[in-house]
Write a structure and sequence with these properties.
It contains 18 helices and no strands. About 65% of the residues lie in helices and about 0% in strands. By secondary structure, the chain is an all-alpha fold. It has a domain of about 160 residues. Helix 13 packs parallel to helix 15.
């Protein structure tokens, strides 16, 4: 029966392809017959996309969209893994046009190396409101940088304040790229616990994470630990040092001066210069008093 059904599907697809006007009465009858065959027609319709023109493509996409379900997703994965651009685009269009399935199941498609990841991401964007942030985060850890960034972009569009505690907890992981993306997400909210989480990342072993933490803290409201930030004037990476200077100057925290002493006394000329650069920008009569008070017990 399966063989006969496949033969019938091929026959009807051939008839439909030969119809110049897809809106004609005969074409519409053929379309209805194809829709009545059942899910086994999906692979053949997907194959037909490769050689279809614009009007027939729209018809084939409509047929495919009518069959999308959790049980039939495996067929659409094959379409997204096809080498032909038209087939991939048509399959993605069909998946984007249907709401009759759990969009979170699409995340499993990332496991197939042949699946077009850009097309898959576009489908996910369409269904972003139906996606689980927890599942998106779990999958993001496993992906390459480009796909990882795409998933975090989707998360950003659906993020709510209720998700903040979970995001903060995830910053304890080891993946630097994930930490950076998480900080970018969390800057959306003004909360003291987020500030503390950013401050924790100032001591990360990865310079990119430390730099991202500085950037995240630069625009924060509420209390921040300026002492932890000024410690990055002693950072072994000169780019992080430079970023620390910019952030400290921008924040102009009233307690900055008292925490500059370690940097001013450091053996590194670059560190001392960084501290002096901060002084030049934010120093005033009151801060000079703070500086003198901070160094009064030092021989120098």
């Amino acid at each position: 029966m399966a063989i006969l059904g496949g033969f019938r599907a091929d026959q009807l697809i051939g008839q439909l392809t030969n119809e110049a006007d897809t809106n004609s009465r005969s074409a519409q009858k053929t379309i209805e017959r194809l829709k009545n065959i059942g899910p086994k027609v999906i692979p053949r319709v997907i194959d037909a996309l490769a050689m279809s023109d614009k009007s027939h493509t729209m018809v084939f996409v409509d047929i495919l969209a009518s069959y999308v379900s959790d049980k039939t997703l495996k067929f659409y994965k094959e379409g997204l893994a096809d080498g032909g651009e038209r087939v991939v685009a048509g399959t993605a269009w069909a998946l984007s046009s249907s709401n009759n399935f759990n969009a979170n199941n699409l995340l499993e498609f990332f496991d197939d190396k042949e699946v077009s990841k850009p097309a898959l991401v576009e489908v996910l964007k369409v269904h972003k409101k139906d996606l689980s942030v927890h599942e998106l985060l779990r999958r993001a850890y496993e992906l390459e940088p480009k796909e990882k960034a795409a998933l975090f972009a989707i998360i950003e569009e659906t993020l709510s304040i209720e998700m903040v505690p979970d995001l903060i907890n995830r910053m304890g992981g080891k993946d630097p790229a994930v930490k950076i993306h998480l900080m970018q997400l969390l800057t959306k909210f003004q909360r003291d616990d987020i500030n503390r989480a950013f401050e924790m990342q100032l001591g990360d072993t990865n310079k990119m994470v430390r730099s991202a933490a500085l950037s995240a803290l630069a625009g924060r409201k509420g209390p921040v630990n300026i002492e932890k930030i000024t410690k990055l004037l002693l950072d072994p990476d000169l780019e992080v040092q430079g970023k620390a200077v910019d952030v400290i100057v921008k924040m102009n925290h009233p307690d900055t001066i008292k925490y500059l002493v370690p940097a001013l006394k450091d053996e590194s000329e670059y560190t001392r210069r960084s501290a002096v650069e901060v002084l030049n920008e934010i120093c005033n009569p009151e801060s000079v008093k703070d500086l003198l008070a901070a160094i009064k017990d030092d021989d120098w």
